[in-house]
Amino acid sequence: MGFFQPGDVALRREVLHGKPWSVTPTRVVLDGPGLLVVFTPPGAVFGFPPHHRAHHWQARGRTHWRGVGKLQLHRPGDAYSVDLYWGGDGRFKGWYLNLQDPFRRTALGFDTLDHALDYWAPVDGDWEELDRDEFEEQVAEGKYTAGQAGAIRATGEEVAAMLTAGTTWWDPAWAAWRPDPDWPVPALPAGWADYPLP
Predict the structure, then answer these.
(1) Phi–psi pair at 130, nearest 5 degrees
(2) pLDDT tens track for 166-187
(3) Looking at the DSSP assignment, which residues form a beta bridge with residue 94?
(4) pTM
(5) Quick one: DSSP state of residue 185?
(6) How is domain 9-176 classified at the architecture level of CATH?
C-alpha cells in the first residue's frame, strides 16, 4: 500500500479479538516511511461496528470527537502514539502518550487497539501515568491475553523511562502546528463498517 497524501481521509480503526471495534475518520497531515501524522477534528463522527463487547465510548453515549482536535504522531513499530492537545484558547497543553497496538496499514487508513494505559507530559510540570486501574480491570475482564498484558506493561515502563530521561524522539515544533482551515470535518465513507482486515 502506498502512502497517504496530506489532506486525505484515513480511518483509524480499532480491532479487538479479530473484529473491528470502532472507526474514527481522521485527516492525514504527513505520511512517510518513518512517521504517520493524523488529525482528529472536533465533530468527527465515530462508527461502531457490531461487536460482542461494546466500545467504552459507545457505552458512554459518545458519538463524535468533542472539544479541541488532537494530532497523533505514529512511528512504525511503536506500541503507542504521541498525541498533542491544545486548550480552548489555542495554547498547547502537552503530550499524551497513548499506548496502543503498533499501527497496521489498510486500504482506507490504519488499524490499532487502544490499551487504556497512558502517560501525560504537560508543557509545565512533571509527567504522570494515567488509567492504570482501568487497564488492569480490562486485563481481568479478558480484553488482553496474559502475554499482551505483559507486553503493554513493558511498553509503559519504556515510555516512563524515556520521559524521565528526557530522551523523547518527536520534534517539539509540532506544538506550533495548526490544521488547514479549509479542511472539512472528515466523514465515514460508504462501506466503513465492512472493509476487510489487512
Answers:
(1) -125, 145
(2) 999 999 999 999 999 999 999 9
(3) 85, 122
(4) 0.95
(5) P
(6) Beta Barrel (2.40)
Q: Tell which residue, 10, 3, 23, has the closest CA to residue 76.
A: 3
CA 143 vs CA 3, 38, 178, 192: distances in Å: 31, 26, 36, 24
Non-local CB neighbours of 92 within 8 Å, separated by 6+ positions:
84, 85, 86, 123, 175, 176
Query: Above pLDDT 90, what percent of the chain?
Result: 86
Q: Give the pairing type, strands 9-16 and 109-112.
A: parallel
Q: What residues contact residue 182 under an 8 Å CB cut-off, 6+ apart?
A: none
49 neighbors 195 (Cβ within 8 angstroms): no
- Burial classification of residue 34, based on how many CB atoms lie within 10 Å of its CB (0-12 exposed, 13-18 middle, 19 or more buried): exposed
Q: Between the CA of residue 84 and those of 22, 33, 103, what are the distances in Å? A: 21, 21, 18
pLDDT at 160 over 90: yes
